[in-house]
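tool_log.txt
---
The assistant was asked to compare two proteins side by side. It first ran the structure predictor on the initial sequence, then on the second. Raw inputs and outputs are pasted verbatim so the downstream comparison step can read them without reformatting.
(1)
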Amino acid sequence: MPQPLLVPAKGDAFDFNLHVVYLWTATNMTFDGLRLRAEALLPWAMGIVRERAVDLAREHEPHRSHDLERALNDLLMHQRWPQEAHLPQFTVRLRVSPDERVREWLRPYWEQRIALECEHELEKIRTRQADDLTRRWAAVLQNLQDEPVTAYAARLTGAEFAEVFQRYVTERRDIVPKLVELLREAVKGHGDLGLGPSEYTQAWDIALRTYERQQGLTRQSM
């Protein structure tokens, strides 16, 4: 297999390595005859490729080997040498790699980039899991508050959880009497104005009775 061709990168301090695949074709020639002619013409073919690649390579910085690879293949892939149709002709495909010294300097950059991208993906996973866990616990707490059976079952999950949940329920229930009193005052105050059993006062009264039943409170005469 031919050795890589060396062409200078921008600044001439480093080289690109051109790994070239030569595709030979011919008419009216046996396979063995084509192989012998291709081997004889290979140094000339390598010179053709290097000559075409040098100027373009010098336009690319030493760490831009992928960009050079695309540019060279775009330039050379549709060309054929030599022009004489009765002679064996070749086309090329290239792969470009950077100077080994450049590869060593690029390694820490890619190691850090890979680590950062992996950490970023882990953070996204943690965020999704935390969000899912929060939603699940919100549903659990709501069920424990609404269902007496599950509220008692919460005691079986551990003393610490039972204590936290009890504080949560107590704080929620502390608000209930204040809200009920506010509703009662609204209904009573509206009646004091002598407006009669309007749709407004009836709606508030129904809302108050419903809320009291849900919270297990006894309606007192007003």
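(2)
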Amino acid sequence: MMASPDSTNYTEYAEAIDEAEPITGTFEPSTDAMVQPARSERQRANPRGRQQIHPRHTDLLPPLESDTTSPKIARQVAVMREENRRLRNELVEQRAEVQRLSKQYTVARMQTEQEIRAIHRGHQGEIEQYQSHLRDMLDEHRQLQETNRQLELRYQNLYHSFQNTVEEEAQKLVSEAASTVILSPERTPALLQGVVKTLQLQVKQEGDSQVSQALYLTRSAHDKTRRLEQDLERERQQVAAEREKLIAMQNNVREQAELRYKTLQARLRGRWVMALTLMTSALLLLLPLLQSIFFYSFKFPLQISLFAPIILCIAIAAIFAYLRSNVGPYYSSAPRKVPATAKPEQKKPQPKA
């Protein structure tokens, strides 16, 4: 009885699975070792999960296809075995690398801590050294200040003593020189020769400066005098020109006044002559008329008729002259109305006096 192809394939697949079971058994310890830390971490994160029991669900394997051959499965199993071996080797290498790196990190950390402690100790030593050096320098500075103060005091004392000594010696020398000058005035002591020369030079310089100042003042006064003379001459010329202008103006005004006076005099004379002529003519005409009226109308005597009109005419002439002399100026000075059509007369500019 011949076996069917399906049964043959099934038997080959079962044999392949049986052969693969030892591989799975050998691989389980490493997988459990990798999964164990993750499982412990999940238990720490969720303590209640220890008491919970999660049911495992296993899916049914898909049915095997009828066209699957055993050599193909064997190749897949071999590939998976090689991949498992490679992954295991890589895991071992990674673990070794992690251990090596952790050891290096620990060693580097220890070295760094040692270096930090050494640097800290060095800095502390330097700080202490600097502090001690600073204290020494401060002490030295205080000592130098004290020494400087003592030296200044000593210098001041020496300077004052030196000045006193010099003053005493100078007073002695001056007193000796003065006594020598008093005893022999014609001879100058050797000590005072320099002083005498200095005084002579100073006197000479002062005399020269005074002479130069006097010359400068004289020159400046001469310049000022010359400028004043020029200003006076210019002002004199201006005054002469103004005087000539004033004289010419006065002559012009005088001539105009004389001309106006003559004009007014001629006008008044003409008016007086005209008035006299008119009055005389009127009186001469009135006199015969009055004489005739007195003689023929009133029948006065001849003598009265002749002389009474003469006296009456003389009285009329006197009254007319009185009225003209007293009332005429008021009448002439009274304002008059100017006609609307008449243009205002333009005033002629009068010459300034």
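---
observation on (2): The mean pLDDT is 75. Residues 70-183 form the longest helix (114 residues).
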